[in-house]
């Protein structure tokens, strides 16, 4: 590779980027790789268990000064690749103004924005107008999930330079799959914040519509919506089969992932949803909505179901299908774990280098590793079961 420097400009150090960046540095021992982070990890994220990730030999600069930003951006333009994240941040605007006129290779990595309704239209117009300078100059776009790819296509970026991308979580040790439990009860879990955007109320409405009794739901997390969810469980008459557990340390969260039969992410909107990676890497199938960026992993792997966002009826159909399959057996869990090799840091790093080679030399357009051996037909899709009311 002719480039001797790759700079990732990001809002904050993230465990959803570190595995990829560390693996890229391992693949390119002669290349200097930097991670420049506009802010340190916020207290809110620290409260969720975040800490400074392991970036390996990547040189990290956190909360750089204006002089440091300028110096890094101006260095060796002819042999540099700059990857920008967070296009509306002051740091990114400053960096882009410096590197745009140079010979540097410039890429963007970003989630899509929620395009629905009047606010979605305003967001689209904002991006269409504000990002003109980026559209005309960037060499490639890494769109996070289906939502990210569609967003950048709709915002008139060059489709041939838009590639599917994913957040890549750190690998974890999971307990070995246990034998299938004796009962036919299907254990279902949601793990995350208890806020409206996450759609746990829709999940509860969906389960109330499921005409089966062999299920239990474990809701793990905390948030402003917690008490109202407990009241909703009672009102729907399912409180005996729903348990609420406060936020757990990561080691116990991994144990939950490894023991349940189905993980659910019922979000109204999620740019990605890294818990989908974590569940699949633990060998657990996933039910999520079509407005979660990570739904591409469920579609491609075939391990789970994708429901229409904000539709309890669609979610109920997905859950009914999963419950009818019964408790997960160890062989099925192993098959899911084996598939997740394609969403590890090493595979993402190799794919990134294929993208750079394609942008500079042409040839066959690279395909994301998680989309190369798609089992799409095995995925339960309920896009035809649509009911925007959650009641």
Q: What layout of secondary structure does this protein have?
A:
Layout: E1 5-10, H1 18-27, E2 32-37, H2 43-47, E3 59-62, H3 66-74, E4 80-84, H4 90-99, E5 105-110, H5 117-130, H6 132-137, E6 140-144, H7 145-154, E7 162-165, E8 186-191, H8 200-209, E9 215-220, H9 226-236, E10 242-245, H10 250-259, E11 262-265, H11 274-281, E12 286-289, H12 295-301, E13 304-307, H13 312-324, H14 330-339, H15 345-361, E14 380-381
Parallel strand pairs: 1-2, 1-4, 2-3, 4-5, 5-6, 6-7, 8-9, 8-11, 9-10, 11-12, 12-13, 13-14
Describe the 3D structure:
With 391 residues, this protein is α/β, with parallel strands linked by helices. The chain has two domains: 5-170 and 345-371, Rossmann fold (3-Layer(aba) Sandwich); 186-336 and 375-381, Glycogen Phosphorylase B (Rossmann fold). Helix content is 38%, strand content 17%. It has 15 helices and 14 strands. The chain has helices spanning 18-27, 43-47, 66-74, 90-99, 117-130, 132-137, 145-154, 200-209, 226-236, 250-259, 274-281, 295-301, 312-324, 330-339, 345-361, and strands at 5-10, 32-37, 59-62, 80-84, 105-110, 140-144, 162-165, 186-191, 215-220, 242-245, 262-265, 286-289, 304-307, 380-381. The strands form two sheets. A seven-stranded parallel sheet has the order 3-2-1-4-5-6-7, with helices on both faces. A seven-stranded parallel sheet has the order 10-9-8-11-12-13-14, sandwiched between helices. Helix 1 links the parallel strand 1 and strand 2. Helix 3 runs parallel beside helix 4 and helix 8 (200-209) packs across helix 13. It is globular. The N and C termini lie far apart (56 Å). The model is unreliable at 383-391 (pLDDT under 50).
